[in-house]
Design a protein that fits this description.
Elements: H1 2-16, E1 28-41, E2 48-59, E3 64-74, E4 79-80, E5 83-88, E6 93-98, E7 101-106, E8 121-128, E9 135-144, E10 148-155, E11 161-169, E12 175-187
Antiparallel strand pairs: 1-2, 1-12, 2-3, 3-4, 3-5, 5-6, 6-7, 8-9, 9-10, 10-11, 11-12
């Protein structure tokens, strides 16, 4: 009898247990984004280290982002560069404004989706925050763009992004990249307008509005 009871309890435990569900972060949000990137170019032995802190406007529906902040220039003084970057993924264009000068380049990768890719698996959980208001974070792992090993860290209750990191060879073989990105003060309940992504005059020479 005791064996039967144990088996029944085990089966009920399996029935009650729910497999982790792939989720989607908000398609629009703002956040403070802190990233540390190491890039080792093919043939080089010295990686290029990039320490970046920006305020990000993310609009997946409009296929556009805006980053305002800068790179660390002097580790001793903490001095940083200042720039604003407008990324228009609909037209694969990036506009970078530094000291009133706008430089345009071509984007070579898509905007990262807010949804956990279907081929990713949950590999662990941990908690963040104080004991009275902590949240459980899920870690999802998989391969993106064919060569990069990604980890998505998102809150379990509402899929708010906490951190992303990835490692691997770029698809063209030009470099090996290690990138760690953390998100602070994520605001989900925002309304982003076209005016938030409006290009400054120095970038408007024949350019379309970002995301249009």
């Amino acid at each position: 009898m005791s064996v039967r009871i144990i088996v029944i309890i085990a089966l009920l435990g399996i029935a009650w247990g729910q497999a982790p569900q792939h989720c989607c972060a908000p398609s629009k949000f703002t956040a403070e984004r802190i990233s540390l990137t190491a890039t080792l170019t093919s043939g080089s032995t010295n990686p290029d280290i990039n320490d970046v802190v920006v305020h990000e406007l993310y609009d997946y529906d409009g296929q556009r982002t805006k980053l305002t902040g800068g790179n660390l220039l002097d580790p001793v003084t903490g001095g940083r560069s200042n720039y604003t970057i407008y990324r228009d993924y609909k037209h694969s264009r990036e506009y970078k404004v530094v000291n009133g000068v706008c430089t345009q380049t071509t984007l070579d990768s898509p905007l990262l989706s807010p949804c956990i890719p279907s081929n990713f698996t949950m590999t662990g959980t941990y908690r963040i925050g104080s004991s009275g208001s902590n949240q459980r974070v899920q870690v999802w792992t998989g391969v993106l763009y064919g060569t990069l090993r990604f980890n998505y860290h998102v809150t379990e209750d509402d899929c708010t992004p906490v951190a992303y990191n990835f490692f691997g060879n770029l698809a063209d073989g030009s470099a090996i990249v290690l990138d760690t990105i953390r998100f602070l003060d994520v605001r989900r309940d925002v309304t982003l307008q076209d005016s938030d992504f409006a290009l400054p005059d120095e970038c408007k020479h024949g350019a379309q509005a970002v995301g249009k």
